[in-house]
Amino acid sequence: MISDYARYRLYEFLPGFSIWLTLIFGVVLSFFKPLWMIYFILVFDLYWVLRVTYFSIYLILSWLRFRRAVKQDWLKMLNEKFPEWKEQKKNVVFLPVYNEDYAVLQTTLNALIDSSYPARELYVVIAGEERKKEHWENLQNLIKRDFAGKFADLLFSTHPKNLLDEIPGKGSNIHHAEKEFKKYVDAKNWNYRDIIVSVFDVDTVVHPQYFAHLTYMYCLHPRPERSSFQPVTLYNNNLWESPSILRIMSFGTTFWMLFSLARLDNLVTFSSHSMSFKAIMDVGGHAKKIVSEDSRIFFQCWLHYNGDYEVTPLYIPVSMDTVQDKSVWKSLKNLYYQQRRWAWGTENIPYLLWQLKKKKEISKWKKFIMVFREWEGKWSWAVVAVLITFFGRLPLFLAGDEVKQSALFFNTPHILEIMMILAMGGLLISAILSMLILPRKPEHEPKYKYLTMVGQWILLPVSILFFSSLPCLDAVTHLMFGKYLGFNVSQKKR
After folding, report:
1. How far lies 274's CA from each of 128, 226, 250, 347, in Å?
2. Which CATH number fits the domain that encloses residue 337?
3. Per-residue pLDDT for 491 more than 70?
4. Which range marks the domain in which residue 331 is found?
């Protein structure tokens, strides 16, 4: 009889195994059955062209919704449709901090004040770490000096160090802050359903209409406690100062989020998002022992409510920092570790496999779709760039004389070239949209840098291979062999 530990380790092993099996099988076929591999590559590339087309259609649809949403006066609409919202709803912002500069947090708090939503109606919880006691105490003094009395309330939570049964990081910090805030809520006798919690990264700069739009959508939703609310994520805070590859990967994240917002069935909470305090309390708060707490909270709720939980798209953006550092090399290193941490979300697959076997109330089809979506996403993340870059030519190079004399061998390079040209349409759309969401050029930046913003897209194949596929392979391989990654704090410097 297999133990629970061994079973869970098997679940952790399988996603990475499926990825490495694909790559190893591709090499073996290229050597021993090159004709089979040529057929596979042709079919796979055709599938990928169709997928790029599918992605582009949803991306454009989401872009149009985004442009329409940012032009609306959501506070006016909120006041007209829900005139008693101030008495009924309370917006709370959680900001976990570690070792960030005060300038980062100051920009975030100023954006809250500059919002169309009244700052006096916002409750702000800033959660610091005892591990950085001196820095945290200095931050508190600066925040009190500059922002005391500007919000409905300004609360501070200190996450103790060396607590048992948790890993140091954002998730455990937020978990502790939620428990502390619950005491505050209970003392005021607030209804958990009426509290809208936004868990933000410390560098999150909200669009002026964000909280008005969020509150409107929350009030409009028939069961808002059964939904998270996901905004568009931009990385515009320091985009102009960042190296080209950081910009490309940041745009890629934004475009993936826009695509997911339009599809809905592919939407899971990511990074900064909002949800009901009722849902948070029902599932026991954010997970304190994992790295990917931003997506895990969705799965916690989805499982707790037996699949009756969703994510509502918000087509209003929040903007964050790229992981720029003092040098290009350090910036690229930060990017690699950030992508690896995001890919560590693979840990949600064994979690789902383990939990779903206990959930008889969820249909088998619904279970399959949820696991398949997560698994296929990580598989594609890790292998697609490798398959297209290396395996498209490898079987042609290794083919024997018999294969080389076939019509398929002669036509395959031309077919692949045509399909890659078709796939370039997605790249063109991305380049155009990147220019449309580009923040205003700082005065100190030369005008010719606009050309760099367009020309940088030639680096896309390199960036996807080395700063997307490779860190994903790194993460899933660590999980395969039980080499668990801790929470890597992304550098946020100004």
Report:
1. 20, 12, 21, 22
2. 3.90.550.10
3. no
4. 72-367
Provide the pLDDT for residue 68.
95
336 belongs to a structural domain: yes
- Distance (Å, whole) CA 258 – CA 423: 19
pLDDT of 494 > 60? The answer is no
Structure confidence at residue 490 as a pLDDT band (50, 70, 90): low
For the chain, the residue count is 494
Q: What is the pLDDT of residue 461?
A: 86
pLDDT at 49 (0 to 100): 84
> Cα 411 to chain center, whole Å?
40
Rounded average pLDDT over 441-459: 85
Q: Bigger pLDDT: 432 or 126?
A: 126
- pTM score, two decimals? 0.92
Confidence of residue 192 (pLDDT cuts 50, 70, 90): very high
Q: How many domains does the chain have?
A: 1
On whether residue 159 sits in a domain, the answer given is: yes
Q: Is residue 433 situated within a structural domain?
A: no
Higher model confidence: residue 41 or residue 197?
A: 197
Contact, 90 vs 123, CB < 8 A?
yes
Each residue's pLDDT tens digit, 385-426: 888 888 777 777 767 666 666 666 666 666 767 766 766 777
In a domain, 3, yes or no: no
Q: How many CA atoms lie within 13 A of 25 on its CB side?
A: 11
